[in-house]
Amino acid sequence: MAKLTLSPELMKSFKPSKAFTGYCQEDKEFTALSFDDTGNTCVTASTDDEIHLFDAKSGKHQKFVRSQKYGVDLPCFTHSTSNIIYAGTKQDNAIKYHSLHDNTYLQYFKGHKAKVNSLEMSPVSDQFLSASSDDTVRLWDLRSPQCYGLLNIEGNSVAAWDPSGLIFAVSLYKESCILLYDTKEFDKAPFMTFMLEDKEHRDRRGRFLRPHPTCIKFSSDGMYMLVGTNSPHHYILNSYTGQIYYRLAGHETFASVNTQRDMLSWSPDGKFIVGGSKNGKIHIWDVPKFEEDKEKHISTLMPIYSTDNHNKAPSKIVAFNPRVVMLATAAASELDFWLPMQDSRRGAQS
């Protein structure tokens, strides 16, 4: 798949080029997906306790691994295409470090007492972050089974690295705010706290809307933060000041306290956002050029393109390939690979 310059016209031409069915039981659903660093391989997890690998270039299924004893969620590649980490959903909520090459466990990371909400490798090292419903965020290193950092965070939090790996963000669900930590000084108080407050919208009681964050995504340059919420809007913030620039509208929200880590994705160039919707639609938002000196007025962005492709099943999972122009989406038991129209005519191969 050749690299292309993204434009509104190109983004509007995206169509499913490959639909994968039968890799998840019909009464089960995909829960997460992730690409490796090269963008060549996609890994998925599903509620039937299976891990599947797909070749993003050829559009073919590669292999699957069962994790019936431990369950599986939130798989993500380490910086090796042969190894992943993932959160167990059974027994002790431990995180597994798994070799896909020979189907062996390389390490168990124990400590969480409840469901793991987010799990993310550092973009630059062997460190990784996990946030759990047990009111903790933990920092780990693949080389040690013991966490080296522990934050007591009340609520249904999620965590995410910035692209440099020097900073990570943690959401406070109940307080509707984002905390920023220095990775080297994680044991200190957060160096920044951003309140997620939309002063141009009010709730039924007339109070300013304070949407609850359910996912965090940094732009590729680290300057902006995309915060998904369970309100009618998602938000784009300045990562340094917390100023809200844009609210994303036009989707049917997932009105749930459950985290939706993968419901939104930046394009690699930071110019577009692709997101899912409760009604199964896939939406594309065109993000205007940021004006740092603009007045603190939040602009509303509507999708430039929306499409039905998941038979009204909630499209909870959307991921833009980090290296090439393709998308992956999942809803219920179907996984789709998307390409721009000129490429999709040739199928998934190029």
Automatic annotation (TrEMBL):
Key words of the record: Nucleus, Repeat, WD repeat
Taxonomic path: Eukaryota, Fungi, Dikarya, Basidiomycota, Wallemiomycotina
UniProt-listed PANTHER family: WD REPEAT-CONTAINING PROTEIN 82 (PTHR19861:SF0), WD40 REPEAT PROTEIN SWD2 (PTHR19861)
Organism: Wallemia hederae
Record Pfam families: WD40
Positions of WD repeats: 109-144, 264-287
Protein location: Nucleus
Family, as annotated: Belongs to the WD repeat SWD2 family.
Primary localization: nucleus
GO molecular function, one term: chromatin binding
Cellular component GO terms, alphabetical: Set1C/COMPASS complex
InterPro entries membership: Swd2/WDR82, WD40/YVTN_repeat-like_dom_sf, WD40_repeat_CS, WD40_repeat_dom_sf, WD40_rpt
Superkingdom as given in the UniProt entry: Eukaryota
Gene Ontology biological-process entries: RNA metabolic process
Protein name stated in the entry: Anaphase-promoting complex subunit 4 WD40 domain-containing protein
